[in-house]
Amino acid sequence: MQAILASLQKTNGNDIGGIFALLGNSTTVTWTIKTGIIPPSSNSTQAPNAITETLGSTPFEVTTTLQSSYVSQATNVAVARTLIHESLHAYLGRWGRLSNMPPNATLDELLEGYMKGTGFSPEDQHALMSGIVSQMADALQNYCNQNGILLFHERAEDLFWSGLTKTPAYKLLSPARQDMITRENNAEQQNINVPNPAPTGVDITPQGKKAC
After folding, report:
1. Hey, what's the torsion of the CAs at 141, 76, 61, 41, to 10 degrees?
2. Is residue 182 left, alpha or beta, with left meaning phi > 0 and alpha meaning psi from -120 to 50?
3. Contact 64, 33 (CB under 8 A)
4. Residues whose CB is less than 8 angstroms from the CB of residue 15 and which lie 6 or more positions away in sequence, other chains included
5. String of DSSP letters for 35-84
6. pTM for this entry
7. At what angle do helices 153-161 and 175-190 cross, to 10 degrees?
8. Is 201 exposed, middle or buried (0-12, 13-18, 19+ CB in 10 A)?
């Protein structure tokens, strides 16, 4: 995982990529990333792949834990995706604390709360959400380019949508797109070939390699 994190810290060119440099060099935020065993939440039977928790105020302490079993099975592309996802969670975490949101708020909840606070219309909120997903996809593509991995932008976006399925913006995607998002995510997360829903389509294969 350290090699993946080191590559992501070299990512630049957009706001999402810059979060790693910002958090890594900040004197007011301490961001710790580790692996461990994460139990299921009280309202779910499935344990999450990662969780980001926020504590304190000065310095602002953020801890991201990646599920050990997930890191040992998933591809490097999936783990890089998760770290980018959690970096945005860490970045928005301080805003959430100052806005009295729960310290264990999900990224879905933080983004929804942030967008509601802007006073944007639902259409504007969808555009903002899509723009954030596009920037996260840019950062993942940058990581893949550094490591000789071919990843098309739409598939990169799909990997991020898979972690934002509770947002109103995700619900506006077509059922076919949502199905493809699930299949592409399973391919990377489980490092397996997944059947293509198209009758003559080839299997969906993982683009990355085993992370650990």
Report:
1. 110
2. alpha
3. yes
4. 135
5. EE--PPPTT-SS--SEEEEEE-SSSEEEEEEEEHHHHHHSBHHHHHHHHH
6. 0.82
7. 90
8. exposed
Token pair belonging to 134: 């596009």
Tens of pLDDT along 161-204? 998 888 888 888 999 999 999 999 999 999 999 998 877 778 99
Q: For residues 6 and 37, what is the distance between their CA atoms, to the nearest angstrom?
A: 23
**Contact yes or no for 112/101 (Cβ under 8 A):** no
Tokens of 59: 């310095």
pLDDT in tens, 64-116: 899 999 999 999 999 999 998 888 877 777 666 667 676 667 666 777 776 66
Nearest C-alpha neighbor of 85 from the set 68, 106, 116: 106
- The residue type at 198: A
Q: Which among 140, 35, 138 is positioned nearest to 80, based on CA atoms?
A: 140
**Contact assessment for residue 115 and residue 43, using Cβ atoms and an 8 Å cutoff:** no
Phi, psi (rounded to 5 degrees) for 199: -55, -35
Tokens 């490097």 sit on residue: 76
